[in-house]
Write a structure and sequence with these properties.
81 residues; alpha+beta; single chain; 2 helices
């Protein structure tokens, strides 16, 4: 399994039907120490939630359980559905 880096990112000023204008958060997953910057992104999941604590907990769950990169998107989608 490749070494990966999982980062929280935020996207500001998203207009959500139920909340209006707010900050939403997502997660980016990268290959660690990849020599080619354009090839290091494994996946990016945007607009997970406007709840920062919820997204941080998802990030910790993925890291703690050493989820394989190919399954990270599925784990996140399961958590939000």
């Amino acid at each position: 399994m490749p070494l990966i880096c999982i980062k929280l990112h935020k996207q500001t000023n998203k207009l959500l039907d139920e909340l209006g204008l707010c900050t939403v958060y997502g997660i980016s997953v990268y290959k660690k120490d990849c020599p080619l910057p354009t090839k290091n992104e494994i996946c990016e999941i945007e607009d997970i939630s406007s709840n920062l604590a919820f997204v941080e907990n998802l990030l910790k769950k993925v890291a703690r359980n050493m989820v394989r990169p190919i399954h990270i998107k599925d784990v996140i989608l399961d958590a939000i559905s």
